[in-house]
Amino acid sequence: MRIKIIQPGVLTTVQDLGRTGYQQFGVPVSGVCDPFAAKLANILAGNPQDAAVLECTMMGPVIEFLDPGVFAVSGAEVTPVLDGEELLVNTATRAARGQRLSFRVPKAGFRFVIAFAGGINVPQLMGSRATFMKTREGGFCGRKLQAGDTLDIFDVPLPGPDLSRHYGGNGFAAKPLYEIRVVPGPQDDHFTEAGLHTFLNEVYTVTASSDRMGMRLDGPAIEATDGYDIISDGISMGAVQVASGKPIILLADRQTTGGYTKIANVITADFKILAQLKAGDRLRFTAVSMEEAQDAFCREADALDGFARWLSL
Amino acid sequence: MDGVRFLPAGDTAVVAEFGNEISEAVNRRVAAFAALLAQSGIPGIQETVPTYRSLMIHYDPRVIRYGALLSALSALELPPEDAGAGAEKEVLVIPVLYGGEAGPDICNVAEKNGLTEAEVIALHTGTDYRVYMLGFIPGFTYLGGMDPRLNTPRLATPRVKIPAGSVGIAGMQTGVYPVESPGGWQLIGRTPVAFYDAHRADPILPKAGWYIRFAAVDAAEYARIEAAVAAGTYEVEHLTVKEAAHED
Q1: Pick from A274, A217, A265: which is nearest to A35 by CA?
Q2: Distance between CA atoms of A225 and A276, rounded to whole angstroms?
């Protein structure tokens, strides 16, 4: 089946869980900034968790169904509208041929994902359908979507998933101050005691010069013992890099390696909060143990698998 | 295993750090450890990213937890440090058209170092460069081993657009631009060989730990290779050569 982009929104791209296996060659992972939302929307739409989806930023797209289909929306607290009818996030909905899907401006959060039953059919590049805009590769023609683009969705038998079942967990909610959990390292030993104290106690504000590559924060400078340069090493998703005193949280389009100190790394279970923060939002970092971080990682993955099993019963 | 530090990099990656210097000895340990790990059968490892002096190991905590992974990594035994001597090395021979329009800054490199352009070419083609790591952009190689007589600072004003395949020098570094990009390197030549082609079976030509040998070609040969590359019939010369004992 096919969908047509009537209005593209601010930044709508085809993404999946990322292009892994090529980081040793300098190829960024890309993929969605909010993997939890992508997995959840895919499960709701009856897809494998890693199917390709649309990642939308702030102002969502207007999409026309050229054929009947099923879709689900997850991530930000946003109201999807199908031909004037307001819908809920975290539920699957059937659309008839010719119906138009649009979105109100999110009440809270920054990014949301639309999964279509079957998954988006764009060619795989190095094993992934994710868009990497910097080299203009992957996804749909290597770029963000434009008005008039027609996307192919893999055909699956409809009616598809049981539409009466929805995800009962809490969605994203706005807060005056977000707590973001981190595991210290790998270069936490490059910072003074005062610097570490600043990092874990002060409030940082998301700046407007943030994108899918990194979230730049403003706030008190973090003091290092001997500068912020290191001999390049690898960078994982959510790494908190301190290059000139201010932290930058590296996201999906990050480079594979870098030459600046990384004081800590956001835990995977909090990526779903991180992906929703926008300019002006305030956050504070809290250090947790590796055990706590990995417990949370496993709980989240198990919950998604459990939800997928329950839906398919 | 001695001389290695394991550093946490979030809940899905760990860094094995072998030193804090750019040296062939440290980089060889990284490569040896990556090879050892690939053979180890340790479960849950998704991919590894080698750099000058460390290996980042991405893993699935649902398969193996941090503590268990550290135990398994610590139990691996690296071969003695000099085991590389007399071993074989992989060398890619990269044809380069030096000077002229392809390398407009070769005169800067010559002038800065009191060399003729022919001497610049002789020095640049006279070394096998070790690929210490790839990063920054897809297929960008960090090469080691350039002759210090070619040391030239970056351009004062970077270019907005540099064609893919451009061969340049920046300080003590030399390398190839794998994709069109802006940059401040002194351009001394261009290769028709694509270091990066996402649609190829092996999208990126060189691997960390391999060597690059640049070979000068004339304009006619460049055009012939360029056509063969476009037709998909060009095969980069890949040598496996016995190594002399290392210099460090």
Answers
A1: A274
A2: 33
Q: Is residue B184 a contact partner of residue B108, using CB atoms and an 8 Å limit?
A: no
B58, B66, B142 ranked by CB distance to A294: nearest: B66
Among A8, A111, A109, smallest CA distance to A56 is for A111
Q: Note whether A69 contacts B: Cβ–Cβ < 8 A.
A: no
With 80 as the cut, is the pLDDT of residue B1 above it?
Answer: no
Comparing CB atoms, the residue among B11, B51, B178 nearest residue A232 is B51
Domains along chain A?
2-152 (no CATH), 178-300 (2.40.100.10)
B128 in contact with chain A, both atoms CB, cutoff 8 A: no
Q: What is the pLDDT of residues A215-255, one digit of tens each?
A: 999 999 999 999 999 998 999 999 999 998 999 999 999 99
Whether B8 contacts chain A with CB within 8 A: yes
Tens of pLDDT, residues A14-25: 999 999 999 999
What domains does chain B contain, in order, with CATH numbers?
5-84 (3.30.1360.40), 88-242 (2.40.100.10)
Give me chain A's average pLDDT, please. Answer: 95
ipTM of the complex: 0.96
The tokens of A287 are what? 């250090």
Q: Give the 3-state secondary structure of B203-234.
A: CECCCCCCEEEEEECCHHHHHHHHHHHHHCCC
Half-sphere exposure of A238 (CA within 13 A, CB side): 30
pLDDT tens digits for B173-201? Answer: 999 999 998 889 999 999 999 999 998 98
- Residue B248 pLDDT greater than 50, yes or no: no
Taking an 8 Å cut-off on Cβ atoms, the answer to whether B207 and A134 are in contact is: no
Query: B140 at the A interface (CB within 8 A)?
Result: yes
Using CA atoms, how far apart are residues A277 and A84, in angstroms rounded to an integer? 28
- List, for residues A119-156, the tens digit of each pLDDT value: 999 999 999 999 999 889 999 999 999 999 999 999 99
B208 at interface of A, judged by CB pairs closer than 8 A: yes
